[in-house]
Amino acid sequence: MSPKTLYDKIWDAHLVDTTEDGTSLLYIDRHLVHEVTSPQAFEGLRMSGRDVHAPDKTIAVPDHNVPTTPDRVNGIENEESRIQVDALDKNARDFGINYYPVDDIRQGIVHIVGPEQGWTLPGMTVVCGDSHTATHGAFGALAHGIGTSEVEHVLATQTLIQTKSKNMKVEITGKLHPGVTAKDITLSVIGRTGTAGGTGHVIEYCGEAIRDLSMEGRMTVCNMAIEGGARAGLIAPDETTFEYIKGRPHAPKGAQWEAALAWWKTLYSDDDAHWDKVITLDAGEIAPVVTWGTSPEDVLPITATVPAPEDFSGGKVDAVRRALEYMGLKPGMKLTDIEIDTVFIGSCTNGRIEDLRAVAEIVKGKKVKDGMRAMIVPGSGLVRAQAEEEGLADIFLEAGFEWRLAGCSMCLAMNPDQLSPGERCAATSNRNFEGRQGRGGRTHLLSPAMAAAAAITGRLTDVREVM
Amino acid sequence: MDKFTKITGVAAPLPLINVDTDMIIPKQFLKTIKRSGLGVNLFDEMRYQDDGSENPDFVLNKPAYRSAEILIAGDNFGCGSSREHAPWAIKDFGIRCVIAPSFADIFFNNCFKNGILPITLPQEQIDMLMKDAEKGENARMTVDLEAQTVTTSDGETFPFEVDAFKKHCLLEGLDDIALTLEKAPAIQSFEAQAAVSRPWV
Ligand code: SF4
Known about the structure:
The complex is a heterodimer of chains A (467) and B (201).
Chain A: H1 6-13, E1 15-18, E2 24-27, E3 30-33, H2 39-47, E4 58-60, H3 79-95, E5 98-99, H4 110-116, E6 125-128, E7 142-145, H5 148-157, E8 159-162, E9 166-173, H6 182-193, E10 201-206, H7 208-211, H8 215-223, E11 232-234, H9 239-245, H10 254-264, E12 277-282, E13 289-291, E14 299-301, H11 316-327, E15 342-345, H12 347-350, H13 353-363, E16 373-376, H14 381-389, H15 392-399, E17 402-403, E18 424-427, E19 442-445, H16 448-457
Parallel strand pairs in A: 3-4, 3-6, 4-5, 6-7, 9-10, 9-12, 10-11, 15-16, 15-18, 16-17, 18-19
Antiparallel strand pairs in A: 1-2, 2-8, 13-14
Chain B: E1 6-14, H1 21-24, H2 44-47, E2 70-73, H3 85-93, E3 97-100, H4 105-112, E4 117-120, H5 123-133, E5 140-144, E6 149-151, E7 157-159, H6 164-172, H7 176-181, H8 184-197
Parallel strand pairs in B: 1-2, 2-3, 3-4
Antiparallel strand pairs in B: 1-5, 5-6, 6-7
The complex binds iron/sulfur cluster (SF4).
Iron/sulfur cluster binds next to helix 12 of chain A.
């Protein structure tokens, strides 16, 4: 048998049909659904008199629109948001799919809930009408975002029409320095390859620094594969993966666990497998990073200065000029001199328990800078409960953070959590696009530890100085 | 789905790279539960000023391009989220074809599901098309899917590649789901087999 990559293996295991031109029908093991990209798909089903093919493999949770303030128990004030969440309630009920409503403690961001509940398992195909579905690749599952028409297609058939992507290997060798995290790895990779560097590829992340990461950290890395343009990001499952999964509500049990484990252990790329593209980074050379522009590829070590448009070539020159104007920055400015007025800690990139622990470690016994709006939004109700149990919530409240309920919140500001024009935010989320966190709002992406440091000093800060 | 065969129309130049889905349709318009009516908010933040009036400098607000059917853009068009609201807004505005040096993957796929043809051409050819588009409303371009060509107002022709299956679906206006449901027996036998080999799924 010819050597295969992990992607090849998962692909082959899910192939229902292939036509001569290479168009394939791929079976989908898990379909995650949220309220923003699904209403039109369910409406399509109803109009054509079709049913959900595999309701037991379909999992829905509202996350994008839900308010994260305690008064949300009284219902959602914004009418359009409420209609969308109500539509999901009704669709979940009508079609009999697995559902975690707003008032369920298991509710949260769809990409945090899936793994937390054990829905996401190695070797699966996972899709969701959401680009950050890439997150689930951390388990060695082939996971990618789809559009609403494809959501309808998966609902109706439990399959997806696909053409195979190319294989790309991203190897992170060596060990990370203290203060450097999974977020710095994934941003640094995008800084190197650009936001289109992975286009047409499925990335597999490997190397010592990836192996050393917890599942939380691996999810952070894979989450942003899409920001590098890749269709999906993968990490081969290992003991860390199995340990995380074991005992979760929907993980296999007993004899099925043993059978699953035996198969999962075959899920790795063969030594002499073919790679279409290979990128190698030395973990020892990765510093804590921040973004300075309006694309996730606009990333630099925190010790650097704001670049000038002339430092770039091609279409990027104009893009950088535009970005600097939007961000209100001047070339040559030190990144650590950039003052911020908002801190957002949360999102499917960095809203897990380990992220909150990292924040607590930095802010314990300290105070958020006067006048700063600093918000911590756990990724799920269960993450929130655990943080409260571990005493992290008390640390946050004492330091002056707002401690919110679970949801996407200010990651994309579809709920009331938004930036005003000109406001500058240090955010642990994944996109710094113009207007992403509110019209005219300015976003700097960074790790939870870096965001915590910024909350204390009121400016972008090298976390190593406050450790 | 609407068919796409051949169109001749005005092409609007948008020489920006990394045009993301938040630019194409900002999130406040994702709260709809319908597919239609998003055209007025296409490129909302670039198209309108803070007081809600039109920004006269934005290409689609210029008289020459108000009824553009083709869009010429820079690298990595449609990057960002999976929101199909982006192609819905483009289509609702009246644009049926986007031509760029490269596209983000999910956006590219979403176009085909909505009767929009995304075309990838090398940067040098995009530069030429961009120049042609800048001539305004007299510069009508032709995109012929059957022949797989783009023809400028000067009659210069560029061939393009397109996936055979996607081309077929666009030309015929076929519904993917109906096509897949014809393969129901294959899906059932896959499921029967998987129930044995991976019963925990
Ligand atoms: S947290 Fe942000 S990126 Fe993640 S699913 Fe929600 S909106 Fe999307």
